[in-house]
Structure formats: structure tokens, C-alpha cells
Amino acid sequence: MRVSVFSMILVVVVAASFAPQCQASGWEALVPAIANKLTSLWESGEFELLGHYCSFNVTPKFKRWQLYFRGRMWCPGWTTIRGQAETRSRSGVVGRTTQDFVRKAFRAGIITESEAQTWLNN
């Protein structure tokens, strides 16, 4: 089990132990809400980049007691280049990961400067 997952579970358990005791119906509503919040921190998906199918995943990570998100993307069947980024922004990590991928693809000569600028300026 990865350290970040273990740390996150530990934080939830400790927080739950300090929560005031409530009725069983309260716990029944609280547990799914917490589980939903935790599982929403991870994400995997697909998108199209310059006419090619690409995949990405986002995973949470604790670093110096702060929550960060690590993004990775790759385009199977097109190139072996992988984009990577780490940021505190959950909503911005996929964009930063895509920018890293585009920079690497441009340096490798896989895409043109105009194609790269389209992605880097947005």
C-alpha cells in the first residue's frame, strides 16, 4: 500500500475518532460521504491530443503535510513520451501534465512549434 493512501486513511480514522458520537443513521450518511470524497481524489481518463488517443491518471500525495496531486499522461500507439506534473491544484494537474507532454514531444520533434504553442498558450 502506498504511503499516501495509508496517510489519507489514517487522517480519516483519526478525524472520525474525534467526531461527536451520533445516531446510527448519522454514521450511515457520513461514511458514504467520506468514502466519496476520498475516491474522488483519484482520477483516470482519456482524451484526444492532436488526433491521437491519450490516457491520464491523477493520484493524491502528501508532501510536508500538504495534499498534492501527481498527474501522468501517455499516448499509446503514438509515442513513448510521458508527461508528468505535480501541483497542489486538483483542477489544474491534468493541464500541467499535458503541457509537460507537449514540451517533451516538441523537443523530440514529434510535433511542430505551432502545434505546441496551441497547447502551451491555453
Automatic annotation (TrEMBL):
Q: Which domain of life is it from?
A: Eukaryota
Q: Which InterPro entries match?
A: Anti-LPS_factor/Scygonadin, Anti-LPS_factor/Scygonadin_sf
Q: Does the keyword Signal apply?
A: yes
Keywords of the record, alphabetical order, are:
Antibiotic, Antimicrobial, Signal
The keyword Signal appears for this protein: yes
One GO biological process term: defense response to bacterium
Q: What's the protein name?
A: Anti-lipopolysaccharide factor 6
Species name: Penaeus monodon
